[in-house]
Amino acid sequence: LVRQEWQENMSTIKRPKVDERYVVIDSTAIYYEDKSYVVHPAFEKAWEKTSKSIKIVLLIPEVVRGEICYQQTKQALKFHKEVSDTTEKISKITEHKYHCRIKEDKIIYQICERFDKWLKLYLAEIIPVPTEEIDWKDTINKSIWRKAPFSEEEKKEKGFRDHLILETLISYTKKY
Q: Would strands 125-127 and 56-61 be described as parallel, antiparallel, or unpaired?
């Protein structure tokens, strides 16, 4: 009898209609070892499948965008150095001056541009770091003393970017 009453009550509860949902991601959700992909293919597949059935908005903290661009740039610049070193060796062997015409700043620009194209394709929004709202004195103190969200890992302080992401989310949710 109690279960039947519960079921009847549940059928009369009116839930508000949710027009859209928001998903905020960290870099671990889209990170992929193979940098020829902008983001992890499994994320794209899951996003495309989910977004067909419900309206969702992809929110990416500015720090996450920066982390992904940095990781991809680091890999590309490693290859750039290898090409430059190889070109220099070829120059020595041939006694002709060869140059690697690829410029580091152009690599960085193109990687960020590529990520931004991906953002547009998925209609993602970048959430800026609320630098004016962050209590920097408290942040610095927590960082120095390794208080949450900061921690010590292999003699290095860890958690600054995570803290900025958390501050970004707090600020964003207060506005909406």
A: parallel
Q: Give CA–CA dist 160/150, Å, rounded.
A: 7
Q: For 85-138, how does the pLDDT look when each residue is reduced to its tens digit (9 = 90+)?
A: 999 999 999 999 998 888 999 999 999 999 999 999 999 999 999 999 999 999
How far is the C-alpha of 143 from the C-alpha of 167, rounded, in Å?
14
Q: Residue 139: in which H helix or E strand, if any?
A: helix 136-144
* Cα–Cα distance list, 16 to 6, 9, 20, 24 (Å): 19, 16, 12, 22
Query: 39, 72 in Cβ contact below 8 A?
Result: no
Residue 66 to residues 27, 116, 131, 134, Cα–Cα distance (Å): 9, 11, 15, 19
User: What are the contacts of 114-121 at 24+ separation with CB within 8 A?
Assistant: 114/38, 115/38, 115/65, 115/68, 115/69, 115/72, 118/38, 118/39, 119/60, 119/65
Backbone φ, ψ for residue 21 (5° rounding): -115, 155
The closest of 118, 157, 114, 135 to 25, measured between CA atoms, is 118
The whole-angstrom separation of Cα 106 and Cα 55 is 36
- State pTM to two decimals: 0.80
